[in-house]
Design a protein that fits this description.
Layout lengths: L1 H21 L13 H6 L4 H12 L3 E5 L7 E5 L2 H10 L8 H6 L12 H15 L2 H29 L5 H18 L14 H16 L4 H10 L2 H29 L7 H13 L10 H4 L2 H33 L1 H16 L26 H13 L5 E4 L5 E2 L5 E2 L4 E5 H4 L3 H4 L39 H15 L10
Parallel strand pairs: 2-6
Antiparallel strand pairs: 1-2, 3-6, 4-5
């Protein structure tokens, strides 16, 4: 026993001496464990940690390696030429990859996990749904109704009471409600005044927490936890079961409604009708979409869960960071309000029949046209705080990136959009400033930046197919909330 204690003491002492000697290094490569201890210790601030490494190294790429006996190897990059090459020029060589699929296995074969031919087919199917006039009208009406009936009364009450509220929680509830209505046609009432809990939401949160942890540790660690059903993996298994039950019920209910002639024009109903068209031979034999649509309830479950999560998380993050930046920069808020006031003054419907001002006023998409500074502030907030700060890609064949880094099958590449927005050599010395003016030309029009510098909705063939719809929903919500006086009340 004394020998064991002595051995442990020697190991600990050796690690302590090694750490004291190397602690000033930008990225520590621990003996036996590689960079993993550093990653785990900085998970709570992973985006700032990565950005700090880039700034310290003065380069656009660096490697993170796992334990000696593991194959864990990440290449993290912010180099604009690399990003364009990976996302667009040689897109086919950099799929999500099997490691990514394993970590997000709860999404099954949905479009977020799909690669190659399956992804192309699903994208065309989703594109057809999201671009239809019926769905766009349904989504616009749904968003406006939730804003008017729930978000407006809640924030109005907070304003009148002079109290504070967690806006990130409010936006999360708002976007989850609108996402579930758009995808399933079901109203969770998650944004009700009493701010209730919901088992659907809780299951999603538990699953996402476990997935984030999977990216921080070697595959063997989280797979062992899953096999033992302990820690985050135990919650992950439980949340998976909960989601399966809820989604199966929604799918069954929607199919029954369609049989009765009730069509809500939701994403789910559109996909079910596509399956029925395939089964009844309305698509020609060999049609490349029929092989995707005719995959039963499992395909519906995977696709609808993917769309629900994508609709909530990106919009919540975008709205939350936008208002946080507005709070920190009142001069920007005032310029946006000036634009909104001008837009409002042009609307005759802004007055009731008695001539009294209708307040609060919920702006629609027609009101938001021509709001250049408002749109510029939106882009600037996405530059500094992108909804998807990190993106992961695999490697099919050995390749050389534009900056000279060699990538091989088995490696994973991390594209840090968060760090891109903080690199002086990309955005200038004022890159940390919230400066909407950088998006406006001298003639007063918007100056949209190239995708290698700004890809808030991803870029290339895999860019977000619903980005226009998400932008409109965010704009409508932001413009309403900014109408309240003393915005800092919301905290």
């Amino acid at each position: 026993m004394e020998l064991v204690i002595f051995f442990i003491a020697c190991v600990c002492s050796s690690y302590l001496i090694w750490y004291l000697k190397h602690r000033n290094q930008v990225l520590l490569q621990w003996p036996l464990f590689g960079s993993i201890p550093s990653v785990v210790l900085n998970m709570h601030k992973i985006n700032d940690w990565i950005a700090g490494i880039f700034l310290s190294l003065g380069t656009g790429s660096f490697n993170i390696k796992g334990p000696k006996l593991s194959k864990l190897h990440y290449l993290v990059t912010t180099d604009p030429d690399n990003l364009k090459y990976i996302l667009k020029t040689n897109f086919a060589n950099f799929p999500k990859g099997p490691e990514f699929h394993q970590k997000f296995d709860i999404l099954g074969g949905g479009i977020f996990n799909a690669d190659f031919d399956s992804w192309a087919k699903q994208r065309e199917m989703a594109h057809s749904c999201f671009r239809s006039s019926e769905f766009r009208s349904f989504l616009a009406d749904t968003t406006k109704k939730v804003v008017e009936d729930r978000l407006v009364p809640l924030l109005d009450h907070v304003t009148r009471q002079g109290s504070s509220i967690d806006l990130q929680d409010v936006f999360s509830r708002f976007t989850f409600d609108t996402s579930v209505i758009a995808v399933f046609g079901r109203d969770l009432g998650h944004l009700s005044p009493d701010l209730p809990t919901n088992k659907f939401v809780q299951a999603v949160d538990d699953a996402q927490e476990a997935i984030l942890y999977r990216f921080a540790v070697p595959t063997l660690v989280w797979k062992s936890m899953r096999w033992l059903k302990v820690g985050r993996e135990r919650k992950y298994i439980e949340s998976w079961k909960t989601l399966d039950i809820i989604l199966a019920e929604y799918i069954s209910q929607t199919k029954e409604e369609l049989r009765k002639g009730v069509d809500r024009n939701t994403v789910l109903s559109t996909y079910i009708k596509s399956q029925e068209d395939s089964e009844q031979g309305r698509w020609q034999s060999g049609d490349h979409l029929s092989s995707v649509a005719n995959n039963g309830d499992k395909f519906l479950r995977d696709s609808m869960l993917t769309f629900t999560l994508a609709g909530r998380d990106t919009t919540t993050a975008g709205l939350s960071w936008f208002f946080w930046l507005i709070c920190k920069n009142p001069h920007v808020e005032e310029k946006i309000l000036d634009e909104l006031r001008l837009s409002f003054s042009k609307k005759a419907t802004g007055r009731s029949s008695s001539g009294e001002k209708m307040w609060p006023w919920v702006f629609d998409k027609s009101d938001l046209k021509g709001l250049v500074y408002f749109h510029a502030a939106f882009c600037e907030s996405l530059r500094l705080y992108p909804p998807l700060p990190l993106n992961s890609k695999g490697v099919v064949k050995e390749d050389v990136l534009p900056d000279g880094n060699v990538v091989r099958p088995g490696m994973e590449m991390i594209l840090s959009q968060y760090a891109v927005g903080r690199m002086p050599w990309i955005w200038g010395e004022d890159c940390l400033e919230f400066k909407p003016e950088r998006w406006i030309r001298e003639d007063g029009t918007l100056d949209l930046q190239p995708m290698s510098k700004f890809f808030a909705f991803s870029a290339g063939p895999r860019s977000c197919i619903a980005k226009v719809l998400q932008s409109r929903g965010k704009q409508m919500t932001r413009s309403y909330v900014l109408d309240f006086e003393n915005f800092s009340t919301f905290g």
